[in-house]
Amino acid sequence: MELVFRQQLEKIISLTDSEYEYVRSFFISRKYKKHQFVIQQGDHVNYEYFVLSGLIKCYVLDDDSSMHILQFAMEDWWVSDYMAYQAGMAATTFADCLEDTELMGITKENKDKLCGEMHKMEHFFRVKSNLGYIALQRRILSLLSNNAEEKYRQLFELYPSLFQRVPKALLASYIGVSRETLSRLKLPGR
Question: Where are the domains of the chain?
Fold first, then answer.
């Protein structure tokens, strides 16, 4: 299973076996069951996680307890409440498992230490962070300028495997429409 992690790293940097083992020593492994929380609002967030297997939804609840999904994280993706992780503040989001999930986590202290000791890892995390900003910008622009059908089609084109794993109600929440609106559209993946 950890081959997925090494492959993730080696998409951006090359590592010898001993370098990989050293990097791996900074991470912990965690397993979660379906519906188990990885992060709950108000928690202290100690880890940034890499998803080895499974699927997580990250979301906030508004004053009416309506769910607004910020992110899905599946295999080969990174996930955390980044504001809380970076600033050492309480979590503002929830992250729970839609499937049994296996994660590798790194604390901020270990990440800082690892990046300080290995330029390769600093480079890796910088590239991943930049790619994350690009994805977030794409998502915000889509939410601001696309209609429901365009948002759905864009999501389907980018992440077709989500449509086999995520209920339509959650996909609707992710693109910011009601389940009823989504049901009325003639869309791919249905």
Answer: 3-114
CA dihedral 4, 86, 139, 53 (to 10 degrees): 20
At position 54, the amino acid (one-letter code) is G
The Cα–Cα gap between 148 and 185 comes to: 8
- What is the structure's pLDDT at 189? 55
Reported as a single tens digit per residue, the pLDDT across 58-110 is 999 999 888 999 999 999 999 999 999 999 999 999 999 999 999 999 999 99
The three-state (H, E, C) secondary structure of 91-104, written as one string: CCCEEEECCCEEEE
Q: Do residues 49 and 38 lie in contact, with contact meaning Cβ atoms separated by under 8 Å?
A: yes
User: Percentage of the chain surpassing pLDDT 70?
Assistant: 97
**Would you tell me which CATH number, out of the four given (2.60.120.10, 3.40.50.150, 1.10.3720.10, 2.60.40.3390), belongs to the domain 3-114?**
2.60.120.10
Residue 188 has pLDDT above 70, yes or no: no
- CA dihedral for 44, 73, 51, 131, sign (positive or negative): negative
